[in-house]
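pls read this protein.

:::
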Amino acid sequence: MKKIFFITTLIILNSNIFLFSQLKPNQLRVNGRNLLDGNGQVIRLVGINHGHAWYRGYLGSALQGIKSWGANSVRVVLSCGYRWTKIPAHEVSAIISEARNLGFKAIVLEVHDTTGYGEDSAACDLQTAVNYWIEIKNVLIGHEDFVIINIGNEPWGNLNTSGWVNATKNAISALRNAGFTHVIMVDAPCWGQDWNNTMRYNATNVLSADTLNNTILSVHMYGVYNTASKVQYYLSYYYNNNLPLCIGEFGHYHSDGDPDEQAIVNYARQYGMSIFGWSWCGNSGGVEYLDMVYNWNPNSPTNWGSWYKNNALSDLPQTYTISININPQNSGSVTLSPPGGTYTAGTQVTLTAQANSGYVFSSWSGDITGSQNPATVVMNSNKNITANFIQSTVNTYRLSLSISPSGSGVVYLNPSGGLYIAGTQVTLTAQPNSGYVFNSWSGDLSGSQNPASIVMDSNKSITANFVQSGSTSITYTLNITISPQQAGKVSVNPVGGVYQENTQVEITAFSNNGYVFSGWSGDITTNENPLKITMNSNKNITANFSSISSTTYTVTVIISPQNAGFVYLNPIGGVYTAGTLLTLVAYPQDEYEFLNWSGDIFSEAQTVSIVVDSNKVIQANFILKSSTAPFSDQKEFLDSIIILPPSENPFYLNKTNSYVKLKYYLKQSMSVRLKVYDVSLNLVRITEYQHNQAGENYFIFDAKDDEGYLLPAGLYLYQIESHSSKSSFGKIFIVR
């Protein structure tokens, strides 16, 4: 008996080796109850469904949102054209490419037209779906490591479900005969829920139709699975019999009953089964409660979405993607260690740039800067990095060194020599002689950093400056530390680490994604950023950052008046991670000039910077150049009338704050007229007063025009005039 058992086991093992040999290298594959990746490692997919066939304009935002929640996969609805508009091959190719670029481990593509066949007269059969897969085969081949073909969604209703067995087997065989080696997924009958156990009891029979043993079964769990015991009863059968099963859809409740979603997630996790929640957004017809987000916004989850994110996706490690660009194209390549492109959060990746013939590596740009090669990066966010190369055909450059004063020290070069191929990075180390200390570099290298590096992209002339150690020229060292190390960076101006006594140095902290600057510590304790320090001693300063959630805020920019100018944002966009340092620059059109900012910024500087720590509404105000004419023949303050600061500026108009006092000073009694203008110098209000005495007076301004209507929020100019003189213009901001 032992001998017979051994021979039988050997035959089975050899059979599996033969079947795997027919699969493509590194492709996804099914082994027993498990799904394996291209490296033969067990993977469990936890993802979300997206109804692309009905919402074709939302692909990018949907996939990006699903990935931002931490899902490692996505199930996408397609149509073969039988019931809804056909999704053409080129569009399927774009879907696959988009999902790959975002770093998903796999994508499940399904034809939805088969839903409820035999009971829903609008549905097509599985053979129609198979014909569609064969029609778009060319864009699927080559993606066996990423794409799972879900032949047809819920391809049988509740009637005559025994017919599902042969229809499914025939569909599997047809795809294999057409040359597909992808993992195939087949949905259960009974609208996917298999309440009568047709798929459960025929699982082995159906799987036997796959000559490559590369098919996974899928059940959809809605109202039928309303208790934990029902969920366990169904799922444990597949687990105990080593059969591959995935939960292709489920929700938190449904029109046919209230499924036990917690049991579905718990048992799927316990048995290592993949799951896909239904669905991201766009449900209608009374099942809108199955939307995971409102209005396609990942930052606006529904109750169902919040639950799924916190319960189903919470046990998946966060992953990030690294994208490499070569500049110019075909000038070189970059190898990654560890290899791949998607990494678990916190992974340290080493990048090595290798130049092609005729080029040399120059520098990194993007999320890595500098010219160190190899370079390392910690994967705490998605990274976009460019490796820059320059031509090195016969170009060489000379590095000329001078010592000042003569005999005060020496400079060592690494690599040594004085003539270098273009693009070579040279490190210079200044070594003072007895009685001297190194002070600074000058010429084509500046600052006090020692050692210092320079890229040879032209002839260079550099002087190393030393000072006598006993001279009055005293230098101090500035040492900056980042805490935690990967949380951000600090720019120093002027650059360097050694400074002459009393040099003013400005340091600015910039946070990476997921962090916000929280303050300086060490020899200086403050939250001011940027920070100016005086080098009157050696300084050890730590830039501290705090971890934040993936909270994002919206910055809305308003131009007033419309078309008077535009605003440049750096970084570009309008939605930013909390803690982002945002710079805004206002540019007027030809006939306008910039006046100031209002809203969540009050400044007259044309360039301003803010930390995005809440939703912001910012207004850039411009005025016509001709509007400066009233000032041209005026003094700053006239003899008779002087504008004083208003009692409130900005003026927040509400039910309890209905007016503001616009103050002015009169040097004599007189009759005055107060005029209020909008930013285009349109007169909106005029009021006259007779003052019988000099001194401080005020005008009651209720934010209404001459006809008694409330003025819009914004910037207004006001001026007080008499028969013989006018005041300068005052400014008041109205905010509601």
Notes: The first helix runs from residue 2 to 22. The two ends are 89 Å apart (CA to CA). Residues 151 and 195 are 20 Å apart (CA to CA).
